Amino acid sequence: MSQPPPIPMDYQDPTPPPRSAWRLAVQMLAGLGAGTLVSVIVWVGGWKYLDQSRAGGTAIVIVPAAKLIVGVSLLCIRGWRGLGGGMLMSLAFGVLIFFGACAANFKM
After folding, report:
1. Is 16 helix (H, G, I), strand (E, B) or coil?
2. In 10 A of CB 100, how many CB atoms?
3. Would the pTM of this model clear 0.90, i.e. be above it?
C-alpha cells in the first residue's frame, strides 16, 4: 500500500514585519521631550513650592520613579517601545535639570 504524499505545512513567522526606523525615532524623541518637559515643570517651575514645603523630598523620589515605571511599562508593549526608551533617556536629562535648578536657587 502506498501512502499519499504528506501535506506541506505552511510555517509562518507569527511576528509582524519590523516597523519603520522613522517611527521609532519619532517615538523616542517624543518620549524624551515629554519626560524632559515633566522635569522642567517640576524642578524649574515648581522650585519655589518644593523649597517651601515638605514635598521636595518626596518629589525627588516620585518623579524619577514614575518615569522609570512608565518607561519600563512602555518598553514591554510592542508598538510603544520607542516612547518607553525615550522616557528612560529623559531620566538623565532630569538629573541634569535638577542639579541645574539646585545650583540656580542655592543661596549662601
Report:
1. coil
2. 12
3. no
